[in-house]
Hints:
Among the domains are: about 1-35, no CATH class; about 120-220, no CATH class. The protein has helices spanning about 15-45, 90-95, 145-175, 185-190, and strands spanning about 120-125, 205-210, 215-220. Helix content is about 35%, strand content about 10%. The radius of gyration is 69 Å and the shape is rod-shaped. Strand 2 and strand 3 form a beta hairpin. By secondary structure, it is mainly alpha-helical. The protein has a three-stranded antiparallel beta sheet with strand order 1-3-2.
Amino acid sequence: MAVTEAADPSRGGTIEERIMHRFIFTCKLALAVAALVSIWGCDQTSSVPAPTSTPSSGSAPPPPPPPPPDSGSVENFSFAPSSPPAPPTPEADTVPARPTASIVNVEVPSEPNTHGGPDSSQEQVVADVGVGKKGRGYGGGMISEPAKQYFSIRERVVFQIQIPQAMKHFKAIDPDGNGPVSHKDFMEKIVNEANVELPELPRGEEYWYDAETEELMVLRPKP
């Protein structure tokens, strides 16, 4: 907007005229400045981008996200085919043979007599060489005769050396100089303490100590 230049108030006129001309000049200058400010403000407003439209408060909210899949549902179950089983090894198919049990007749060693002596179905003989099970029926051959002599020597050592020496030692320390008073006393004080290994007897025979004669006997069934 063009500004009209006012007449110079210094040029002629009275004081009132000069004041009036200055007031009019000031008003025109203020109007021109206001017009320029208004035009500049309109240009700045048009350059600002228009704000985007926002959804109204009455619009429906967005749908919630879908729930996570259930690990146990059928849809998530894996139907991947399993690997084929490994072929059986020859060791797995082989069944070890069950060992066959062989019946062996085992001779039960005779136990010390506990009933106090022979009964009516038994006879008694002195325990000496030849009463043992081993060595019976041997002899007369190059192999059997040495075997018989071997077992005979062992029995001789037991019945003629070890037991007599143990009995002698027992009587020496006994106040009355007597031997064992019972079969149990003989087995504990003579056989066990002297480490005497009595020969094994055939089935049905047993050792018995006679306290009256102070001898070790063998009880066997009567023929």
